[in-house]
Amino acid sequence: MKYNRLKILTSLVAAMFILGLFTGLAAAQTPAEQYEKAREQYQVHKDKYDRTKEKFDEAKDLFEKSLKKFRETKNNESKDELRLKFRDYLIKAIDHGVSHLEVLKYRAELPENQALLPFDASGNIDAHLTQLEQIRAKVQQAETDRELLDAYNDLKDLWIKVRLETRYYIGIVLNHRISNFIEKADNVSTRTDAAIQNLKAQGKDTSKLEEKAASFEDLMKEAKDSYQKIQDLFEEHKGFAPDGTVTDNKEAEAFVNQGNSLQKETIRELKAASRELLDFVKEYRKLSGGKVIVSGTGRLEANGSGRALIRGNVTVTVSGNATLIVSSDAKVTTDGTGTKETLGNGDIKYIGFGSATITGENIRIEISGNDITLTAEGTGSAVLNGRGTYSTEKSFAVSGEWQKEG
Q: Are strands 399-401 and 355-393 parallel, antiparallel or unpaired?
């Protein structure tokens, strides 16, 4: 009887491998918050996750030391100590698991993610939280080594399912982002064709541009083919029920591994296509006289010296040693003590304005000078001519250096 009890305790070493799955799963999944309140809500969950992780790591260290001592002595005292440390290890693992699920639930309930998941992920997480509390009760009430081991096996099986479902949820969200990128790339293809035709009409040699555009199209076709395989795979979602829960651990593991591999391949191809597009933009800027032209909806950030012309339904903030000219229908707020002049055509000219915020619909903004910093958000177009850096989001999504004016 004593030998069997010692054998059961020794078998608990396997717990170290499975319970290690808790470490780090939520820490790398910090969501980018848009609003301060949302950031505060997330921070509450993140702080709890960090505290439970610290206590889990401490319990793990004590369990490992007790295990080592038991292996060396194999007496009743070390056996009793190992049992106590293992019980505490399980409790801390459950605490850490709860905090992980709370972070996951927070992310699942973000509006942008709720719209993507075709099932009630939050409800599934609540069910797992209930299961964790049931296992906690088993651990607390366990009087024998066998009862502790049974609770451990329940925890192991539950956490395997949680890990697989987490990967499934993330895979669905990532598929949506890949789809959005491909959709935007289709719009870019239309723009590259128009850019080439525009330069051809000016008598420019567009052979390099056409080569880059063709390479971009080929790589995008490969990415689309890979993405279609992902879509086909997620249509079957082997190992998962329509409600997002695991039905077969082995099939679910094979499914998420295959999905992860296909997503990596698709992203690799999209990155390669993006590099070709960046080369296209650089070549286009050379042929177009060093101008950067951006149009669409999104955000533009730029720093440098030269000239910028912005048109559309936009809000622009600008600062630097510059001159600012805006159309008469623009609303302007400045914090400097410079001059303001109404021009003959109704435009308004500002010099020495410090920093300014300009907003309006169908407005025109001209900025020229040195050490300019500007941010534009909305729908419209921008032409940058000078030297500096810029980046865009949700539009012609590239970044690079301005060219010197010819």
A: antiparallel
Residues 81, 174: Cα–Cα separation, whole Å: 46
Instruction: From first to last of the 406 residues of the chain, give the pLDDT tens digit.
Output: 333 433 333 333 333 333 333 333 333 333 333 445 566 777 888 888 889 989 999 998 998 899 899 888 988 888 889 889 999 999 999 999 999 899 888 888 888 788 888 999 999 999 999 999 999 999 999 988 889 989 999 999 999 999 999 999 989 989 998 998 888 787 777 778 877 887 787 788 999 999 999 999 999 999 999 999 999 999 999 999 999 999 999 999 999 999 999 999 999 999 898 888 888 877 877 776 656 667 778 888 888 888 889 999 999 999 888 899 999 999 998 887 788 899 988 899 999 888 899 999 999 999 998 888 999 998 888 888 777 777 777 654 344 445 433 3
Q: Any idea how long the chain is? A: 406
User: Are 234 and 170 in contact, with CB atoms under 8 Å apart?
Assistant: no
Q: Are 306 and 384 in contact (CB under 8 A)?
A: yes
Domain boundaries, the chain: 2-170, 176-284, 290-401
Whole-Å CA distances, 146 to 14, 76, 323: 14, 17, 80
In the numeric block, which tokens belong to residue 375?
Answer: 């941010």
Strand, coil or helix: 348: strand
Indicate the DSSP class of residue 345.
Answer: T
Q: How far apart are CA 166 and CA 48, in angstroms?
A: 19
Tokens at residue 113, please? 């993610």
For the four alpha carbons of 72, 73, 79 and 85, in that order, the dihedral sign comes to negative
Nearest residue to 260 (alpha-carbon basis) of 344, 170, 138? 170
Written as six digits, the tokens of 161 are: 């399912």
